[in-house]
Amino acid sequence: MRSPAFRRRTTVRRYRARLAAVGVPMFALLAGLVFGGTIELALTAPAAAQSFTYNPRPPKPAPRPVNNDGRMLVQAVEVDYDYNNQRVSAVGNVQMFYNGTSVEADKVIYDQKTKRLHAEGNIRLTDAEGKVTYANIMDLSDDYRDGFVDSLRVDTADDTRMAATRADRSAGNYTVFENGVYTACAPCKDNPKKPPLWQVKGARIIHDQTDKMLYFENAQLEFFGVPMAYLPYFSTPDPTVKRKTGFLMPAYSSVSTYGYGVETPFYWAIAPDYDATFNPRFTTRQGVLLQGEFRQRLINGSYQIRAYGINQLDRDAFIGQPGDREFRGGVDTKGQFALNDKWVWGWDGVLLSDYYFFSDYRLAQYRDPLGSFLSLPTEAISQLYLTGVGNRSFFDARTIHYLSFSGNQDKVPVIHPVVDYSNVINHPILGGEVSYKTNFTSLSRTTAAFDPITTLANTNGLCLTASADPLARIPSQCLLRGMPGTYTRLTAEAQWRRSFTDPIGQIWTPFAIMRADAIDASISNQPGVSNFLPVGDTQAVRLMPTVGLEYRYPFINVQPWGTTTIEPIAQIIARPNETFAGRLPNEDAQSMVFDASNLFAVDKFSGYDRVEGGGRANVGVQATTQFDRGGSINVLFGQSYQLFGLNSFAVADPTNTGLESGLQNTRSDYVARVNYSPNRTYTFSVRSRMDEATANVNRFEAEGRASFDRWSVSMMYGNYAAQPELGYLTRREGLLGSASIKVASNWVVSGAARWDLEANKLNQYIIGAGYVDDCFVLAANYVTSYTYSAGTTPPVLNHAFMVQIGLRTIANSSSSAGSSGIQ
């Protein structure tokens, strides 16, 4: 007879059985899963297992593929059934797989009487989301609501880690980690036992899975195992939470006008699609600056609104300045929405109590994405826009209002709309490519914007002096940067171009361009304006037909060391004179730099308000060598000639655009460019413009860059001749350098400086250092820069210092200080 204590042992074999027959809930609860319905189980063991003796653990095979057919796969060296005690044991290299979750252990016992699961030895549980749990002992109820785990370690899919000597689970959603440790840093590859860069230790860490919160009791923050801060209590969302209501890390700042400040942001996750942040700044001198932001994401876009306000306690800090008032504040907003896969529309909006509010309180518009106080912008933009992009077409329409931070709001234009459209026709016409573009611009300005370009004009107000003879060129001491009144222009341009290659390799490219401008200007009769433009109403139609031919003849020479291509290039362009040259407003073509980059441009003006006229020839030669062992060198040298008609670059307009550009003479200055890159590490570039008659260098730039594994450096030297007609009364010369050095695996030191060689002083420099890795950020930047204004007003020297600290998944905090003074 069999003893009641007889334990029926089953030789290891493969079979299938219903869940109720073997008490499979033990496997489900170990994986943290609650099943419904019927689940089938398959048990397998190695074919070499021939007895009931427990064998040493063999090497673990790779996890099985995800099983989605409702069955659980279990592998073990030995499976024991004790029917009398209602226990099932899986022993030796136990592996279980179900719907992407896998469990590995040395031994698993399930007691059907007590409905408890007990797992021992080298436990590894991997859930479907990639979270891995390691333990030596697990003892859990079969519904996974209560139990304990000894020597626990958890690795999540987002590289956060938690460990504890013991974890107790209760009520199905509370887990208490005794002597817990939390970090988002990966272990050291060379020495896994080495403390991570940072970790938080707590006498108890409580994880509320319902609220998805971690609560730390008697916590201390350690860096490299050394305690740095102690907190009796703090809480944070668990790593699975992307948005959670609560306080964020504070930020500190210091500015002389408001003293010391601390911001205490509070984040409110109102709903999955919208949230709000309130971050009052408490200052020692001015009181509380209230700040709030609301954001919402919709199905086709998103928008945000920010508001600021403060009742200043000490107006004396801003005596004689725009901030000398009790209440100051502002609102700014932006949004963008997609109409479909090709069209988007959006807006930016700014409204301030005074134009210096953002600057005085160092608000968001005065910082780059990292928060560094790098430079002072001169304006804020409010606009409404619509943009569309096709395969070979582009459309953009927007209205723009510029909020000037200089206080000269009446001299800043309002753009009613500006509309751009361009398209390239997909099929050839007369064998060539046809493209067209249009531009519509309408703007208005209240007061004329004069730019005194000499000290005499600035001190004596000659810009506003009336002149009986406009040719007396009182404007030579001033520029009219912006006309008062309303200005509207519609431009349409079509271009045809086709290339031919003849039997000997010459490339001929004829082209034809037709451009038309319709202009309506209503210029206010303000003092001095008549020296530059006819006041009153002006309507004009300007046509500019252009035909031309471009010629290239590349000569190729192949040598064992590389390939050289020498290519003479010539352009012949025929067109009539520019009509109304210098007699119409110039609002968008004021930037004019002639160099090798635009030598072969048909129209060298940068905008639409001026158009190049007259016959012209552009000639040059380009040589390129590509070395077989890597590296290349490119050289371009050329000159432009006014063949007939009126030279547009010799005609003064309200901004003197084109004068002293190197194109004002019949034979232009020589332009040259050399680019050399011996390998991927070094690049060198030299650009020059030389006087045609004297060979004097009017413009010279030399730039070098080097990039290695641990450091990179760049240096640029610039030397520019005086251009009195444009307001540059003396030669300008300077150096601009930057460097970045990786002093350690995660440490970077960087800096940049601009040295005015004429004044023999640094007028801007930036010094920064930072540590960045997968779990920690530490950055510090110190910046100085001068803000210049027109005339004899002395430049303002600005200083800023900013420190940023970030612990991934825990906190991100910053501190900044700034000051300014007249130098």
Largest sheet: 27 strands, mixed, barrel
Low-confidence stretches: 1-68, 365-374, 468-475, 788-793
Label the CATH architecture of one domain.
Sandwich
Number of helices: 4
Oligomer: single chain
- Stated plainly, the CATH topology of one domain is called lipopolysaccharide transport protein A fold
CATH level 1 class label of one domain? Mainly Beta
Could you tell me the number of beta strands?
Answer: 48
> Beta-strand percentage?
over 45%
Instruction: Tell me the radius of gyration.
Output: 37 Å
Arithmetic mean pLDDT: 81
How far apart, in Å, are the first and last alpha carbons?
108 Å
User: What is the H level of CATH, i.e. the homologous superfamily of one domain?
Assistant: Lipopolysaccharide (LPS) transport protein A like domain
DSSP helix fraction: under 10%
Main features:
single chain; 823 residues; mainly beta; lipopolysaccharide transport protein A fold; 27-stranded mixed β-barrel; 14-stranded mixed β-sheet; 48 strands; 55% strand; globular; disordered N terminus; LptD_C
Structure description:
The chain is mainly beta and 823 residues long. Among the domains are: 73-247, Lipopolysaccharide (LPS) transport protein A like domain (lipopolysaccharide transport protein A fold, Sandwich); 731-822, no CATH class. Helix content is 3%, strand content 55%. The protein is built from four helices and 48 strands. It has a 27-stranded mixed barrel. A hairpin with a 3-residue loop joins strand 41 and strand 42. It starts with 14 loop residues before the first strand and ends with a strand. Mean pLDDT is 81; it is low at 1-68, 365-374, 468-475 and 788-793.
